[in-house]
């Protein structure tokens, strides 16, 4: 239940109110803790940005990714069981990035073949917490009278594959983060934000009119050193599957390696709750782990 003061903030400064609320939830929620050691935080303070729900970029995703990839209007209409033409004239997308803590990243830097135990905890329980953030944002927006849907939590969300991009989903959190101006993609297929590449992304579509944060980069690869000047191939060396080359990232090789790794128990207490979905080695011990490396290079050369 929102306080009268919080309701007033949502009326006067909705964008700031949403950002403040997400930050507070991440900071205070007991779900943002490692289950086996409750004092260990899973994610640091989140980054929050907004995108125009009718940004032409979303229509481009239907060509870049697949015609099955949903626009925000389609995602909201399907989630509310409404016709697109019955939606309000203005819709927005709230996008957040949950940076993985330094301790977890440090633990994964030491690994060469499989993820560290803390990284596995973060990948599994961290995404459970990300779902909690999604649910929380939808509940808060609904309480203040807005329409809201978290596409990743909807029955229509699914993962597919095609010859063009291999595996893909009909709602991409990273592509939504790109539209909101959080960052750009990398040689490893990761997403480089101002807090680096080690993170989880989430989003909610709403009819609340929010000012788009805007994009400052020149293209979808401009935060990656390799694509800017060819000087970095650290993720290639870090990948135990050989799934990353100068031609990009092979999702098929990556998935084959993960199946080879097989079952990785999180701990004896939680050993039945997770398999290895991603090793994350290419996201740690690389120049983009916790920053945008191209900006650092520009400062050095300047």
Characterization of the model:
- This protein has 302 residues and is α+β, with helices and mostly antiparallel strands.
- The protein has one domain.
- The protein is 38% helix and 16% strand.
- The strands form five sheets. Strands 3-4-10-5 form a four-stranded antiparallel β-sheet, with helices on both faces.
- β1 and β2 form a beta hairpin.
Give me the secondary-structure topology.
Layout: H1 4-12, H2 14-28, E1 33-34, E2 37-41, E3 47-52, H3 56-64, H4 72-80, E4 92-99, H5 102-109, H6 117-143, E5 148-149, E6 159-162, E7 166-169, H7 173-179, E8 183-185, E9 191-193, E10 199-206, H8 225-229, H9 234-238, E11 244-245, E12 248-249, H10 251-261, H11 293-301
Antiparallel strand pairs: 1-2, 3-4, 4-10, 5-10, 6-7, 8-9, 11-12
Helix pairs in contact: 1-2, 5-6
The gist of it:
This protein has 302 residues and is α+β, with helices and mostly antiparallel strands. The chain has eleven helices and twelve strands. The longest helix has 27 residues, at 117-143.
